[in-house]
Every structure is written in structure tokens, then in C-alpha cells.
Amino acid sequence: MPSLYVFALVMLHVVTQTSSARSMMVPTSEMAEWNTTRRQLGTGSCRTGNPIDDCWRCDPDWESNRKVLADCAIGFGRNAVGGRDGKIYVVTKSSDDPVNPPLGTLRYGVVQEEPLWIIFDHDMVINLEQELVMNSYKTIDGRGHNVQISDGPCITIQNVSNIIIHNIYIHDCVPAGNALVRSSPQVVGMRGTSDGDGISIFASRDIWIDHCTLASCRDGLIDAVISSTGMTISNNYMLHHNEVMLMGHSDDYVDDKNMQVTIAFNFFGEGLVQRMPRCRHGYFHIVNNVYSGWEMYAIGGSANPTINSQGNVFIASNSERTKEVTKRESTAGNSEWQNWNWRSDRDLMLNGAFFTPSGEDSASSYLKASSMVARPASLLTAKEPSAGALICQIGEQC
């Protein structure tokens, strides 16, 4: 165990990039954090046991075969096909017009009615003027370039389905609103004030967010509310944020009992405080993630959510006040939450971390919160995390 612990701590620091990695347009102050997750997989070593990555990253022709990604999802969001069955749309402009977006902008692509697989023709930083309201059957695929959405309102997924967001760096998102915003070619409507989430999911289903880097937003990095379900949040790198992920609208909103979310292969990095995630009512499979410390708690909830934590690595900080992984919010105290089904199954607890289980221990109690087979947690300490937005070179394995 000591050797695993030492390696787990080492892998939190900067990993030297391979010589083939090109310069990224990341702010200098965040380059160290960004580099932590950049690892090019060499020939003969591309298969890692991560079923998502092993599905596509070994292919040197990934650029020509981009849509294969849509068949690589796992977990509760596995039915999200995004724009797989549509045309390729190329973003050529970083500018934004919330009402009349011109052809070539990201907003023009995401509001169209037909399925689209959206890619980018060069590195770009997109500063949106208003929240980016997406239409159904869209993929935003940043592979091959450094694509950032930052320093403005960010992504809203509302009353739609079949969305894939992949390989985007989303950071420093702020509220906006009380303005006209286009949500389809035919519809422009007045939007209220947005929360400042990185990605806001509202009354939507079949959503997959994979290999994104998210940091420093005004509200949540990824929040999902109002009967959203069928979601997978995977291979993301999250850092420098307070309330990371909220899953469930409110304790009184019982329709969120149908929510099913898979949170897998993510790296919860430095500077995170709480909500990784914070859950209400539904079913949450939290599997094969690495948690590198938390300032309050890692996994929390209220209103009797089912938490199935499997094969994760929890590395507590050195503070004696933040060793516990879990936090429950209940006005009735232990007498209420002791019946909530929360379990830790083959998780690896390091530096004094501990998980407080509750409820039933039988496998049948977690069927609705089971969505994939967990790998042994010890395998996650065998190499540095491969999470967050990737450097993908055209013509090479990613």
C-alpha cells in the first residue's frame, strides 16, 4: 500500500509531454494543471482497459473516422448518438452572435434542426455573448485542436436529447441573460439569467460529456436538473472550483427520482471543494474515478439518492477535517439517511480517506445504479490519469 500511495501522489503533479505534442493555447497560469492530463499513448501501449478510450484512441485514422466515437459510450449515457447520423459541420469562426449566428460559427451549428457532427478547423478561444443553447442530435468534437469556451456564458442543454460534448476546455464561465437568444433556425426567445455553469443540463436525456477539461466557473462545472437522465460524464479533468457537479433540482422535485447518471474515469484534481457530485433522488454510478483531495467532501446528497461507488481512488488531503468522502444533508439526521443506499465497493482509500456507507448491502439494491463493470481501483494507480481534453495529432494515435 505505501508504494501505491506514493505513486498516487506523484501522478497528481506535472507529467512531461511527449515530443510530438504541440504547443497549446492554454493560459500560462494553468499550464501545469493542463499538462497533468496530457499523455500520448505510444504504439503497442494504447490499450489501457478504459473501454471508452480503447474503442477509438488506437486508430491513427481517428480524424477520418470521427463518428466511431458515438459508438464508444458506456454507462447510462450509452444511447447518446449525438450527430452521428448527420453531416460534418466545420466551425471556422470564433465570433458569436446570439440572435443571427453566421454560417461557420459554433452557435450556427448547434441550433440547426438536423443532426450535425461539429468540428473545428483551427485552435480557437470562443467567448460567447450569451449561453449556447443546443438543439438535439449534436456532437461538439474538439479533437485535433485546442478549443476553449471561456470568459462568458457557456453551454446550455435544455429540453433536448442526444448530445455529445468531447475534447473541449471550458473555463471561467459567468452568468448572462435577459437577452434574446436563438435556439433553432425558427425560434428566438428571451432568456432569463443563466447560472454561470460550464455545462447546464435541464430536462434532457441521452447526454455524454467526455474528455473535457472544466475549471473555475461561477456556479457548477456540470449541473443536471429537472428530470434529466441517461447521462454519462467520463474522462473529464476538473480543477479549481467550489461546487463541481449538482445532480437533481431540489429535495421537493420528486420527478428526479428517474435520474440515472454514470460518472466514470474522471480525474477530480486540485482546488476542488465539494459536489463531486452532490445528488438528489436518483441513481448514481460513480466508478473508476480518481479524487485527489477535497476541501469539504467528495460525494454528497439529500432526498434519498442511491449512490453506487465502485473502484474509485480517494486520496484525502492532509487536513484531518477532510478525510470523510461522504456528506449527507438531512433535517432528520441519522434516523433518515441511515436507510439511504450508499455503498463503497472495492474503492481504494488513501491518506486516511473513509466512506460512510448506509442502507442495504445487497447487490439488488443497486441495480438501477449499476451501468458498467468497474475495474480494480489498484489499476488506476498504475499510470498517470488520461483525463481531460487530449492533444490529438492527425495521422497518429490520439
TrEMBL record:
GO BP annotation list: pectin catabolic process
Signal peptide as annotated in the record: 1-20
Enzyme Commission numbers on file: 4.2.2.2
Catalyzed reaction equations: Eliminative cleavage of (1->4)-alpha-D-galacturonan to give oligosaccharides with 4-deoxy-alpha-D-galact-4-enuronosyl groups at their non-reducing ends
SMART domains: Amb_all (SM00656)
Pathway, per record: Glycan metabolism; pectin degradation; 2-dehydro-3-deoxy-D-gluconate from pectin: step 2/5
Cofactor: Ca(2+)
Pfam family for this entry, one: Pectate_lyase_4
Entries under InterPro entries matching the protein: AmbAllergen, Pec_lyase, Pectin_lyas_fold, Pectin_lyase_fold/virulence, PEL
GO-annotated molecular function: metal ion binding; pectate lyase activity
The Pectate lyase domain, residue ranges: 123-320
Cofactor: how and how many bound: Binds 1 Ca(2+) ion. Required for its activity.
Keywords associated with the record: Calcium, Lyase, Metal-binding, Signal
Family: Belongs to the polysaccharide lyase 1 family.
Protein name: Pectate lyase
